[in-house]
Amino acid sequence: MELDPDDVFRDEDEDPDSEFFQEKEASKEFVVYLIDAAPKMFSSTCPSEDDKQESHFHIAVSCIAQSLKAHIINRSNDEIAICFFNTREKKNLQDLNGVYVFNVPERECIDRPSARLIQEFDLIEESFAKDIGSQNGIVSDSRENSLYSALWVAQALLRKGSTKTADKRMFLFTNEDDPFGSMRISVKEDMTRTTLQRAKDAQDLGISIELLPISQPDKQFNVSLFYKDLIGLNSDELTEFMPSVGQKLEDMKDQLKKRVLAKRIAKRITFVICDGLSIELNGYALLRPAIPGTITWLDSTTNLPVKVERSYICTDTGAIMQEPIQRIQPYINQDIKFTTEELSQIKRISTGHLRLLGFKPLSCLKDYHNLKPSTFLYPSDKEVIGSTRAFIALHRSMLQLGRFAVAFYGSTTPPRLVALIAQDEIESDGGQVEPPGMNMIYLPYSNDIRDVEELHSNPGVAAPRASEDQLKKASALMRRLELKDFSVCQFANPALQRHYAMLQAIALDENDIGETRDETLPDEEGMKRPVVVKAIEEFKKSVYGDDSDEESDSGPKEKSRKRKAGTSDEGSYDYIELAKSGKLKDLTVVELKTYLTAKNLPVSGKKEVLISRILTHIGI
Amino acid sequence: GEIKVDDKLLSNRLSMARNREGLVLLLDVGPAMHSILDDVEKTCSLLLQKKLIYNKFDEVGIVAFGTEATDNELARDIGGYENVTVLRNIRVVDEVVAENVKRLPRGTVAGDFLDALIVGMDMLIKKYGALQKGKKRLCLITNAACPTKDPFEGTKDEQVSTIAIKMAEEGIKMESIVMRSNASGGGDAHEKIVEENDHLLNLFSSNAFAKTVYVESPLSLLGSLKTRRVAPVTIFRGDLEINPTMKLKVWVYKKVAEERLPTLKMYSDKAPPTDKFAKHEVKIDYDYKVTAESSEVLAPEERIKGFRYGPHVIPISPDEMETLKFKTEKGMKLLGFTEASNILRHYYMKDVNIVVPDPSKEKSMIAVSAIAKAMKETNKVAIVRCVWRNGQTNVVVGVLTPNVSERDDTPDSFYFNVLPFAEDIREFPFPSFSRFPGSWKPDEQQQAVADNFVKMLDLAPSPKEEVLKPELTPNPVLQRFYEYLELKSRSADAALPPVDEVFKKIMEQDQELTCNNKSIMDAVRGSFEVKENPKLKKSCKRYLRDKPSVSDDEDNRMITYNADENKVDTVGEANPIQDFEAMISRRDHSDWIDKAISCVLEQEPKQFNEFLNHLYELCQERNLSHFLRHFTLKKITLIPKSEAADSDVADEDAGDFAVKQEPKLES
Questions:
Q1: What ipTM did this prediction achieve?
Q2: Residues of A with CB below 8 A from B2's CB?
Q3: Could you tell me the domains of chain B?
């Protein structure tokens, strides 16, 4: 069928609702990174991705550097401190030996991460030996205990802020599983006891201590030697904890990333399974587009934020209007008025519950049944006991029978049909890849779905299809272009990275931003491999033939159709009559061009040009 | 060639500009349709209402068939075509038509849909001639359960094929909505007729721009008609680059896009009623001030955009922005292929696009077909990087999945879904179900009950019997808005109608299904007993702290913070905390604060006390002393035991609360 030639290129990609995705500043978090800087952290190494040896110290600081960057983007309200222990120099309020709190000017020791902090911390390895230095702080025959001191300093830093509204955490990076191992037994017991007590005191104050252990290449970090008591693991959890002990930098980064993001309840949902059975679920927004922060207007002379005042003004009288303001919809020659209350009543059609309607095989969920990011559902027995059991039973049945649930969710505007897909837990060496639970997919309504395919069909005329040979060549090509180890969300968003690199550069008065690596570009090297080039060539040849070039390939159908359309349309108008009565301007450009094409005249130029060309041709 | 004048045609042509549609509704009003004619009226009325708002220049005609009387041009001119009544000739949509369609006649005769189709087609051809290709549309709503008459010559198949080919030539699109409820039985003869009619409708589909939708309930009838006509617009036309030497020509459209309420303009009633020229418009003014108190307003050149970066707001000039921003080049580039199982369904981030080969490039059609089919065969998908237009400041990484056409005349294409970037994911670890205590896990018997339940509550026993398809499910809020709009147009103070009964189907489980399987339903209720946690006191705290309105779920905020649209003005039972927060956050009037407090007082005392403590801390932290002052002024204290048995606050403690806030106010 014919496609509308007037279709202009219009971008619908910018979502007017994008603020709708923005994360509201949730509760605040205070974090102290405690990094062991003992000589052992520098002498022990692990192989990196490209098989170079990297020191454990390097692993720890790169993890933190990455984490800081994530913090400033996603959670910029959080306050963080960086604290080394087992250092030569000391710098802390308590003036304890072997502990060095790293900071930059114009920033409190524990504060929101700033551009300067990130920049200087990126360079920490260059200056560390000179400015801070590594030195074992726990040595025989001395009562020094740098671990104890470090916990003390960290706890003091975390005194800031109320535990009621903020989470407080320490992340401890070390490769020493037995810090007091070299001590005489009596001293060891004593030091162990006091250190554990110090940790317990901190925990009693609502501070959690998390361990990020780094294993030696030949010997795994043994949590049970000392740290299990410090972080308070029981024996069950111990076995769970062991596989997560990091060995590679990537694993470690992953670990830290997961732990830094505190689990927050997005929303409590009542799931009505049937009349008389409702369970409690929590909904989590695990996937939401990260976007650059909103614009704040500044006074250009002082760079201070300006206050924006919005006022509604009646254009007839100039009076300032008070909210709420009535709304109108023009309809059949009148303006129909709605109050804001009426509008919200229209939208209020159900309770906010999630109501189960039934089940369907997974094949009923099409790839185009999607509107916005999914929500993850996980059961909770906190308020309704028995919820988890019922949820797990449904979860198992759905997985086993290959079905998803259809439900009505009244809490969105507008309320929507949703698909609930049971997700089994997926684990890898690095830990949990997919948590067990259900993913809630928001389904479109009938009018949200467009019949685009219909536009491109040509009734009674078979659409061109690939032959067996072309299909084989395509399969071969796909094998050659297989992405190895592809996982979703492996790419950083280059625009966002660029945005923050730009902010950082301006914040630090740097002239050079440097290049932001765009990981989303095709792998040029890989594409140039002879086997790949050959597979593409063969596919291309099978489709386009020996010498033809796809650019110049304009299907014969279109040409003939154009010609046909041209003659028929040209015949239905009396252009001379129209020209005489000055009515040519009422025709569309396409119709004018039809005439010109039929008379073999040029079709370029604006409408007036086309008209005057026709007039000239007719001789008026 | 010969140039002839056809004045009527021309004037029609000129009056009906591009992108306008001529539609004839062919409505079966025979006795078998009476039970659902109300819903047919609703469906058509919605269609016409939307035309009045979005496509005001569209033209509509209405034909009813199965009527007692006969009134159509063909019957007058050549005879036959009985029981077909033209209720309205093709004219621009107006207030009358929206009314017309709400008062369809109840017919007395079993209608012949083929007769009606020919009458409708004749109307379209007489009105528009060969013009308006693709913009002429017939929409047939019937149960297609009545016999059609035999043609004067040839077979019905031949007749239908002839009509279909004529329709294709004339560029008339046809859409048939066939109502088939399971209840309608009627013996072998009936079945034969139904079979024949389905066959005839199918003949249309393969020879013309025609499609047939079967609906089984009033709900899907309402959803079956695309009531909002949106001109198809490509968001991209260009190359899908396999590598620099091989590029496919493709067009990209939205496959899914949310239909929203129309944007309602603000209305001012300030002008005196005598002012005949009043526009009643409201303009939004933004004043940029150095401080809230200052009267000094900053001119545009005196301010600069800033972005938050950590604790600082970084000013960026437009020039800096222009030179430093991420720059892209329009195009779609293939990154490679991967197993379909690698892309879990819940990673789809947005509404969906469709990537169609350029219709003028036959080779691109073949290449797309080859890749789509190969993907389908081998269960693979493609990962692509897209920049839809020049100057776009971001890139999108997404997945192409095959859309291999079932129709011979439709080219193969791909669906495109946006995938998340690394920054978009928030990986929280969740405990394995296996680690839960036994009491939290179902035993064998319970599992068996759940299995039976999942099998029984089946919404798609077979592909043909699938119910609640998104394709056929209307949006209840939009339906309600347009219904209310119509009522208001007749009487300004009309009351909001209740949610239409037909929507029960998407809001509640199918009663018939659950009643027929009562034993399974009882087993479910019996096996999975739930009870409120008796130690709820603690959890209140959690509830308060993790109150949804400050959490990161966007839906929630839509409800409580979207000040213009969802004003909360009372504290409900379901979400008291949320409602309270919403009321407090209303800036339009300080009365809301008082009202919010009085509302909360009516809630449970325990919750109230927890809440008050929490609020108190919150106010202190955020220096909301004006709010704290309300506590003192209103003599609000914790609710002591003496007032409510539920409370566990001693009387003296309740007093303490008031006291302890005093000094804080001073500081």
A1: 0.78
A2: 571
A3: 7-224 (3.40.50.410), 232-428 (2.40.290.10), 536-666 (1.25.40)
